[in-house]
Amino acid sequence: MMCIDFMTMKDGEYHEMQFEYNQTAIKLAIKEAFPDDVEPDLGDPKYRHIIENNPFTAALMGTLSQTLGLKDQYFSLDVWQDITNGYVPASFVSDAAMQANDFEVLDTPRGKMIALTKNVSSINEDGTYKKPEKDRAIGTEFVFGMGENFSNTVARLASEDPQVLTDIRNEAMRVFEEHIIPAMLEDAQIRTGTNGVNIQGAREIFAACFMHIENRGTETSEPAPYVHFHLDLMNTALGNDGKLYALYAGDICAKKDEYTALFQRHFMPVLENKFGFEFAPVYLEEDKHNEYLTDEQRNICSYDLPDSWIPENVREHFGQRRQEILDAAGGLGADARELQRFSQREDKTDFSPKALFALWKTKMDAFGFTVESIKKRLNFNQTKPNTKSISDEQLADNFVRKHQEQQIAKRGQVLYISPEPITKEDAAAGITDPHVKALLSTVLDPKSIAAKIEQDKADQALVDKFMRKHKEVCFTESQFRAHIIKQLLHTHDPELAEREAARIFEKECLQMLSKEKSAEFEGFLAGSIENPHEERQAQIRYLREVRFTTRRVLQQEREIFEGFKSRENDAHFAFSENEAKDMVLAYEARMSALMGKEVKLSEGQRRAMMMSLSKNGAHAAILGRAGSGKSFALRGIKEAYEARGFQVIATAPTNKAAHGLGKDALFEEKDVSSLSQLLLDLDLGKRKLTPDMVILADEMGMACLDDYHRLVAHVNAAGAKLISVGEAEQIQSVSHGATFRVLTEHFHAERITEINRQKHAKHREMVENFACGNAKESMYFYYEEGSVSIEKTDNQKTARVAKDYLEDPTSMAQKFIVAGTNKEVEDINNAVREELKRQGKLSDKPEDEITLQDNKGFTRRFQIGDRVLFSKKFNSDDVEQQRVFNSDTGTIIEFKSQLNRLTKKTSIVAMRVQLDNGKQVWVNTNRPQPIKYGYAGTVHKSQGATYVNNYFVPSASLESMHTAYVAMSRHKEHVKVYLSDEMAAELERQEPDGQPTERMLALAERINAKVKGDMPNVESFKHVRAYLNEHANYIETDAKAPPHPLDRFMHVIKRMSQARFKKSTFDFNFIDNTQQHLYAAAKAARRAEIESPAPVVKQPKVKKPVKSKTKTKAAQAQKQMSAEQQQQLRARDKLKEAAVRKKVREQQQQIQTAIDKSKTKETEKQL
């Protein structure tokens, strides 16, 4: 039960089959009810009840659908085709609406039509629509899906009583119309003027909503029930001037989580109370498989009926469809985009709903899943554990309390408290002030203290869950509150969940603005903008830019900073400059003797050692390019400290990186552990830090804030020293925080820039390009070198990388395939295995393989000779257990069989794996194990690794420069990149929701110079693309410069060049207490625009002046018309200004009233 994802709509053909089927079904129903009506007009009101009783009837919603007269029409296929081609028949619109607005009416072969946007389809002379030559954005489609168990249950009920489906559909449509569309309207915008500089909130929007009930089945199974809704937000908005514009939906799309919360908050209670369904939480995939989390700690992402409602054989049978999705996603859970792709457009069935219900009924009856069994489980008397509602007065008190805290911080302590009478005992104890007694009673009451502690713990647990899921220190109010509501709906009444989310937000979240944006809003924050239009524009933009963080995050970052700041003069770990130089020279001498040749540190390595050994303080940072020899310098630091009696230990966020450092720097195994294991040992007291201990922590750019905070707390408490090593440009922390970057900016740090991993100098230069975000030059270089392969399809691309990998004579331990997603990794691994079978290097006989389930429920088949990768740390099944670490790789070399005395059959019970680190381990095959194929892995798995040859398969969802940099810097000798035309097409499909390319912007600017019109919104790909399509005849081609094969992949190259550094609170300015009301005022102003819109001020129709020989008269007439326009504009601005200011005054008055009510009437005294 969630908003799965959204996508740009290119046409409306997808829903046309549903219209055709529904119209046929409706006509049959009309024929039964009205047998004498031969050719019924479906727009006739007498048929309305039949149409509305069809559960698959599409619905139009949003106030603009009413204004355009669409609400009063039968929503037919013709109407849908009109809308998706950019028109509405003018005959639909009432005279009143025509008078009130300024619609453009066009004479077309289809009659008089109102153009919904400038980017409309052409109409043939016979009235049919021409298919556009290029894609155009007609809207944004949001897909809301219900759970698997709910879908199976509804399918069974509806197979005998279709009214159930109709009732569910009607309730869902009500939720969309009454709650979700209004929420979208708050963020709906229109952008006009050059570069879309002028922003206004849309006055009205509209959408079409469709219900579907199925997913296409697999090759071996029929379609499975899947109840879901397509909410198609059309690309049209009504402006305050009564004109229709293209809708800017960027801010709407950013609030997907809010729509999930609204959907759950308003739809689930109806399903519980009206239909008797009981829902259980569905946990986030990464939390569900985390054995260290309890159910209370796991994040809830959705709700579904419990498994106990559905017979296991039904879930198994219809679950094959879900397994297909999981298989395609590599067994790690499908992300939203994958789930959408597998469950939507290209995967629909051609079955009619009637045929599907008949099919499902037969299957479910055979499994014993009956309507009677469902009805026994229905519960119409459900209550939540927490149903006590917070009153409006309490919410006002919460706001007042926050306001008082802000005033206390500014002016000092002021208490508002009800006085208590003074008794003789009080007087004898020296308590004579009624307010002091009241204060002591409140502060010292054990019950009050205990209740507050428990409440604070519960609140913090919810905040921690949000931060673990959100993975950034900054967020919007919508993101935070939506998440809290989703978590509380399981145990709280919906209204209480909403109010609790508001309370926790007010209590825990702090308002801030990025430092890059702060200068832009100086005038607005100071209240110095005098022009009302400019002030409103600043207010709109400010509302988009404000971010929040939690008090805990701020506290953690400040404690890390202040802890090291207080120790910056600590000289315990610092040697003199001369001593440090001697240590460096001694290390070079030892290495020269060991290697039998002269060894000299690079300049960067030398500076890093000198800084670490000679500078005061408890923290030092070493930054180094991938393959720059950081580990070699760390070995020197380790040996220097150990020679002076210090103990040095090694750690890193991943086991692979930690043990890689341990191997390179010659640490004993007992002194090496992953960061998570080290922190666990420190927390439990199994390991103690001392004042003579140095921690070398590698790959710390990947460490999250929580782990860094825990580590630093232990380091400072013991008086130890931490040396953080890494690079901000490599893969960022999976969780929130940018502590490594902040520490490098504020404390001692040195950078090692000399790359030496790559054998070829030119390759080292290309790695540097990737690190600096200049992927274009590197990709074109590798193409000319023959190291970029472009295939037609993704399947061909996968086959090609498998073939190249196996033709490489390098040992498998020294070569690796890196891919962007788990799905691609799984596809490549399977392709390599199939090729190995074809070559006879793996057996193609099923009896030579065993089936093994991993720790996440995904099954794979293994045989002797397979490369494997372990995805989790565990102990082997040897007699003397050995430690196997996450990301360890190896080869299966033996199976162990055992005779079952009962069945008299021999079966494989264990397999022996030769690890690449030299160990051999036995693994029990009779229980789930964290094991996958090991020919390919994700980029995250490869960070910190070095291979002779590397193969990189970028994903269509490639994230950033950081991912590309790591993937393209693993090799010593050769690297190869694999692309496909299919991938390019997918990137072009995705890009409309992002930024336009530089080439697109350059073309748009050249065209605009010729047509001298308004530039489109330069932040929107779809707006720029529509503008280019509209002016295609102005685009000039240069026949002398043929396109380069990589030109089509500029989207992926652009992403390879984009830095997406994790944020820290140090990157923001916190909003002053006296300015925090501006955020609330901006929200109130937008709500005021929606609830009390200003009157439409239509622009006067200006006719072009007739050319005349008397230029003076023409110029005078032009001047007069301009003056009239200016007068109209001034009038409109005054009306808007008055309305906004009135609403702000009302809001301020409401706040003041709430403050006054909260004050005790009896007395008010300052202490």
Describe the structure.
The chain has 1167 residues and is α/β, with parallel strands linked by helices. It has 5 domains: 2-375, no CATH class; 383-413 and 445-546 and 1071-1092 and 1102-1167, no CATH class; 559-752, 3-Layer(aba) Sandwich (Rossmann fold); 761-989, no CATH class; 996-1057, no CATH class. Helices cover 45% and strands 17% of the residues. Strands 1, 2, 6, 9, 10 and 11 form a 6-stranded antiparallel β-sheet that branches. A 6-stranded parallel β-sheet has the order 18-17-19-20-16-21, sandwiched between helices. It has a 5-stranded parallel β-sheet with strand order 22-35-34-23-33. A hairpin with a 4-residue loop joins strand 30 and strand 31 (920-924). Helix 20 (477-488) packs across helix 21, helix 33 (761-771) runs antiparallel to helix 34 (775-785) and helix 43 (1077-1091) crosses helix 44 (1111-1158). The longest helix is centred in the C-terminal third of the chain and has 48 residues, at 1111-1158. The chain is globular, with a radius of gyration of 33 Å. The two termini are 52 Å apart. Mean pLDDT is 83; it is low at 325-349, 398-416, 1104-1124 and 1154-1167.
